[in-house]
Amino acid sequence: MDNPYHIQEIMNLLPHRYPFIMIDRVVELVPNEKVVALKNVTINEPFFQGHFPKNPVMPGVLIIEAMGQAGAILAAASLPKEKQGSLMYFMGMDKVKFRKPVVPGDQIIFELRFLRRRAMVFKMSGIAFVEKKRVAEAELMATFEEKS
Fold first, then answer.
1. Contact 76/99 with Cβ under 8 angstroms?
2. pLDDT tens readout for residues 74-127
3. DSSP secondary structure code for residue 146 in this structure
4. How do 121-130 and 88-98 pair as beta strands?
5. Hey, which end of the chain has fewer CB within 10 Å, N or C?
6. Which of 25, 51, 113, 123 is flagged as catalytic?
7. Going from the N-terminus, what domains does the chain have, and what CATH number goes with each?
8. CA 117: distance to chain centroid?
């Protein structure tokens, strides 16, 4: 990949929009193999109003959602052109672990790799880093809806 995917390219691959699009840039993408993407965490995120106002921490489920969105980009880029554009849905999450809190000002780097693929079902391994320290990890399984 010569150029990173910026937000417009990401929005062409993901159906998510504000306030739920969680990937700001894709810095490395090797179809059928791996993706490296990032999210800049700011105090302006809507969830920080309630989680937690005096000690803002990014909810773990949203870290996994962002990881899933990075995985959806990898999966979409790995499909033949005629199958691209379908919605991707989570099917399962295994081995989810949270190692450190993510706070405003952090930049999360997501690295996902395919573990297995059968037709339109993808299993991926993901790790989230902040400043090269592991903050979360998970195995994710997802599928695309069938286009008619």
1. no
2. 999 998 877 777 888 999 999 999 999 999 999 999 999 999 999 889 999 999
3. P
4. unpaired
5. C
6. 51
7. 7-144 (3.10.129.10)
8. 18
Residues 6 or more apart in contact with residue 8 via CB below 8 angstroms:
none
What would the pLDDT profile of 41-71 be if each residue is shown by its tens digit? Answer: 999 999 999 999 899 999 999 999 999 999 9
Residue 143, pLDDT > 80, answer yes
> Which pTM value belongs to this model?
0.94
Q: For residue 114, give the amino acid letter.
A: F
Q: Which two tokens stand for residue 45?
A: 């995120």
What's the half-sphere exposure (Cβ side, CA atoms, 13 Å) at 37?
30
Tokens linked to 125:
């391994």
Alpha-carbon gap, residue 89 to 72, rounded angstroms: 9
Long-range contacts of 78-87 (CB under 8 A, 24+ apart): 78/31, 78/32, 78/114, 78/117, 79/144, 83/120, 83/144, 83/147, 84/13, 85/147, 86/144, 86/145, 86/146, 86/147, 87/15, 87/144, 87/145
- List, in sequence order, every beta strand (DSSP E) within the chain: 25-30, 34-40, 88-98, 107-118, 121-130, 133-144
Q: Specify whether 6 is catalytic.
A: no
